[in-house]
Structures are given as structure tokens and as C-alpha cells.
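Q: What does the assembled structure look like for these inputs?
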Amino acid sequence: MLFPSDVLTEEQLALPFTVGVSVRFYGPKSGRLEVRASEGIVPAITENMLGADGAVDPQLQTDALGELGNVLCGNVVSAMTNGIGVFHLHPPRPMDPAQFSELLEPNEECVNIGFDEGRAQVRLFLSSR
Amino acid sequence: MAFNVLVVDDSAVMRAMVIKTLRLSGVPVGEVYQAAHGEEGLERLRDHWVDLVLLDLNMPQMNGEELLAEIRSHPDTASVAVIVVSTEGSEARIKRIKDLGAEFVHKPFRPEELRAVIRDLTGVSDDTFDAVPAVSNGSSDF
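A:
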């Protein structure tokens, strides 16, 4: 079981992100939603999603993170327009951790979530077009 | 009776979660078939007797809406119970799905929600469902 918190310790905030997934969307608004996580988070999430005890195949972990990004993105974009208009979501794409930056782009917001296992971050970028 | 179920989703994790939630819901489940996209879903439907289809919308190689239209266009599958399981929030798109005779369950969902939709869609009463939902906490939500 994962216990999330929106109050993160300094130790949690210092943990580097080791995996991430990006979901691009277009429709009434366009942009992308990213989910990033430090080491240990995704295996725990995957075990939780599958109800598994113990190690889960790495491919399933990638799949689980992608599906999490997809579900978050689908719900966020719908909430932005109260169900008006049709959004199209691209398949989730794994991100290269080497490209991660703590800096936010203009038109980008993020939330941090702390867990016993580490931290995760969800970023929403809206295109200005 | 037990439902033979087809789960169509491009995510293996989501297919596993739908099947897990279905079993937790107390709905009697017979054979469970899986497909990763719409075309594969049609193959499963051609090869097996299926009572209930749970399908995602956003998939490669024939999305869920296209698969639903195909299911309804063939006499052998036109009356199969279909539930779309998706994050979709567009009222227009959900209406199109319901106009094709399918029900809609929004991700994330609970076993109780799935059970209620299956009960309403199939007309099978609660009495014929084998078990009371075994979920009493939030650990199986999705």
C-alpha cells in the first residue's frame, strides 16, 4: 500500500527522478502531461495496481507508469473543459531521465507527491497555440 | 450462470486490473479472453463465445469506438453486452458510445461500480451473482 503526502521532506525532495512518462494531448486545449518518479516508486505502484507480491517484470512497470499517465491525463484534460469537446491522447512515451530538469517551462505547473518509497511529480504543460 | 468475458486494452497492466476488479466485484466469471487492440478483439470474438466485452477507447490498430461499431454491425455479435472502460470525459463521445448500446465506466473505478453497470446492462439480478463484493477498502480502486 502506498501512502501519498503533499508535504515532502528535504530528503524526499533531493531524490532524483529515474523514470518518467509523457502523454501529449490535443483538442480544445493542447499540451502534455508528464509523470516522473524516483527509484522504487514505480515497482511499488505496479505491485499495488496488480495486487502482486514481490518483483514485477520491468516491462509491466513501464506499462503501469504509462497507464497511470494516461489515466491522469484523461481526467485532467476533461476537468479543464468540464467534459465539453473531444480530446485526443497520444500513447504514453517513456522519457529519458538524462533530459529531466527541475525547472518549469512557461505555461507549466507541477505537483509533488511524497511516498515512503520516494517522490513523484506530475507536470502539466499547456501549449500557447 | 457465468459470463465469458473479453477484455480489450493496449495496456497489459490495465487488462490485468480490469480482470482483477471484475473478479472482486462478485460477478460470476467464466472464460476470460484478452486482446491488445480492436482487430485482435474481433478475432477473439470470432473464435470464442463471449457474453461481455470490456474495452478501452484509445488503442492502436482499431480503437474502441471502431471496435464497438464493428461488433454492432455483425449479426453474430450485435447483441453482445459491451462496457467501455476509459478516462474519456467528453460528453459527446460518451453519448456516441451509449447510442451504440454500450455502457460506460470511467477510470478509475471500483468493483461495486462495475458490478452495478454489468447488472443493469445484462439484466442479471444481484441474486444470481455468486458472491458479495470482497472489497472493503480503497486498495483495488481503478
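The two ends of chain A are 41 Å apart (CA to CA).
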